[in-house]
Amino acid sequence: MSTALSETGVAADTGWRRLSPRMLLVHPIIELGRFVPALLGLFVAGSGGGGWSVAGFVGAGVVVAFALLRWVMTRYRITPEQIQLRRGLLRRTTIAAPIDRVRTVDVTAHLLHRVLGLAKVVIGTGTSDRKGRGRLVLDGLGADAASRLRAELLHRGQHLDTVDAVTPSAPVEYEIARLNRAWIRYAPFTLSGALTGLALLGFASRLNNEGGLHLSRLGPLRALGDQLRRTSLGLDIAVIVVFVVVFVAVASTIGYVLAFWNFRLTRHSGGTLHVTRGLITSRATSIEQRRLHGAEISEALLLRCVGAARCLSIATGLRVGRGAERGGELLLPPAPRAEVLRVAADVLGTATPFVVPLRSHGPAARRRRLTRAILGAMVVVGLDGALCWLTHASPYVWIASLVLPIAAVPLGMDRYRSLGHALADGFVVACFGSLIRRRSALSCDGIIGWNLKSTYFQRRLGLTTLTATTAAGKQHYDIYDVAETDAVGFAEQAVPGLISQFGRHR
Amino acid sequence: MRVPANLVSPRARWYWAVRALPGWLLILATEVVVWLARSAPSAAHPVVLALTVALAGAHLIVMPQWRYRVHRWEITDTAVYTQSGWFTQERRIAPISRVQTVDTERGPFEQLFRLANVTVTTASAAGPLKIHGLAADTAAALVDDLTVRTRTAGGDGT
Asked: Of the residues A7, A288, A457, B85, which has the fewest C-beta atoms closer than 10 A?
């Protein structure tokens, strides 16, 4: 766990080093990049008011100056016991992390970094970095120094004096998986391109509002609008649907290639798993094997239809990802199910958690899944009806929404079919979800405690939601709607001696 | 599975009622202001107001009693066990060996009723065990007890 020390708390004041001076080139470009939408609007439209634009430029200048000062004020050093990072302009802080608490080391390099031969090193030291606090970020080391630092921190020998002094003995590396180009065919089914589309829409609206650029007046867009107005409604809808589908498919494929090109998952003799990936922004993450407490296989509905899945790690001390990576580092991008099972088995050292038949949760759980799905759909129908009534919209909009409760039935049934739990080879296996089905295997050693949560309705059915709490991954892994007696028995089996003392008979 | 052995302080019922009061007062005040601000008051306003008062009354009477029956706690040699909630109830179990911090907190309403709450955290962000509505001296004794027990358990708790 990292601790913030006062300036005087650090003993000897020697050996401090700066980040790479080449970062002085990177910072201004990055900071200016944030002003691009506004600047673009200024230059293209030439409007927006004189005073405003001057203020914008002054603001940009100040931001750049601060970025440069940040480089000047940031120093780090590595002592035999600690990594220390000193930063801050007005409030000087020193963050120190004990070397033996280092759990993960991430090396990332975006395009600018790579052009200049730099890399960013993020050192994770355990649970405290869940909210990003206490993480040591060294933004801008030379690429060589960064990978040396990573190797040394993770496979530390007895002597660690400085970054450059020791060259690690060549570690034995064994490849578990690498990207097969044929997997790119799954990319359109990830729908990640939909997010890109939304981001583009957001960018366009910023151009519209902040930049004073009126997109609807641009020639090609206006022509398109006129064209759509002339054709029939059915044709318009068909054209737009085809356009959206093609756009999402292309953008998803580009996204897949950008993120997962050169993907490799390897195991090092030093006891770590390494994930490297990325076409333009390259990323290298290391997970200590002893910090790995399980794995998760997630199948989004579309991916499930084409027989693909992805695999995530459940480990402590990892930085918390976004979107599909929330809760763990990706161990395999969308790939054929068989390949995912092979990788998961290799990583966990056992294949059973992901192939073992699951115990289903019974008719009460099925009824609950169905009611919840249908009620949820009814709420949407109700809201839609109210909205139609208030805005005097065509009643067909409301009638169309009546399809939702009907669609909710197969959804609820599928959600029930997904539900299940098992204990296999020392792993607690839990599965749930329909739109995204997740099957997680958490090692019993990684379980800290248990939560049993039940609403009034669940209690009436004798059901409860059993949650295994852990310091790894998403921090909690839930088994939904399991009969209470089964839940207690299961928890006792997984972690003997903990829950039994609160059993009915003392 | 049985419930934890100990109830919280009986004063907690008053604390829960008083804590829920400001929210209801705010809603009622908004309704009254809207009613008075209308140039042509309709009959709907007093009806809504009466409904709100009835709902608030029911909530303020039922919720604290219900909560008081549910909120329970127990410490054994190896584990902490709590139960909380009312409509949605949650039981949490954490082994003493995995306890990382033990905090007490006394908010303004809690000080009014000489109460305190105790939070026991583990390395999991999902597993803090909170015991609300303890008498202040019980809470202090509980913290001392837990501190001794966790110290003897040792380990770094991850």
From this structure: A7
Distance from CA of A299 to the nearest CA of B (A): 24
Q: Does B155 touch chain A (CB under 8 A)?
A: no
* Residue of A318, A451, A464 to mutate for B, most B C-beta atoms under 10 A: A451
Q: Scanning every residue of chain B, which has its alpha carbon at the shortest distance from the alpha carbon of A473? A: B124
- Closest of A454, A499, A463 to residue A483, by C-alpha: A463
Secondary structure (DSSP) of B136-152: HHHHHHHHHHHHHHHHH
Which of A323, A324, A319, A310 is CA-nearest to residue A265? A310
How many alpha carbons fall within 13 Å on the CB side of residue A247?
Answer: 13
The Cα–Cα gap between B124 and B127 comes to 5
CB distance B124 to A446 below 8 Å: no
Q: Which of A459, A460, A469, A476 to mutate to test the interface with B (most CBs of B within 10 A)?
A: A469
Whose CA is closest to A270, among A174, A162, A161, A126?
A174
pLDDT along chain A (506 residues), means of 10: 40 74 82 69 55 68 80 85 81 78 82 88 64 69 85 61 44 86 91 82 74 64 74 82 90 90 88 87 84 92 93 77 58 94 93 93 93 94 88 81 91 94 94 93 93 94 94 89 93 92 71
Topology (CATH) of A362-502: PH-domain like (2.30.29)
Judged by a CB distance cut-off of 8 A, whether residue B101 touches chain A is no
Minimum distance, in Å, between the CA of residue A470 and any CA atom of chain B: 5
Question: Does domain B1-158 correspond to CATH entry 2.30.29?
Answer: yes
Cβ contact, residue pair A502, B93, below 8 Å:
yes
Residues of chain A with CATH 2.30.29.30: 362-502
A506: nearest CA in chain B?
Answer: B2
Contact A455 B4 (CB under 8 A): no
Q: Which residue among A456, A484, A504 sits closest to B2, beta carbon to beta carbon?
A: A504
Residue A170, Ramachandran bin (φ over 0: left; ψ between -120 and 50: alpha; else beta)? beta
A449: nearest CB among B2, B74, B95: B95
Q: What are the boundaries of each domain within chain B?
A: 1-158
Give the ipTM of the model, two decimals please.
Answer: 0.89
Residue ranges of alpha helices (H) inside A232-318 are 233-260, 301-305
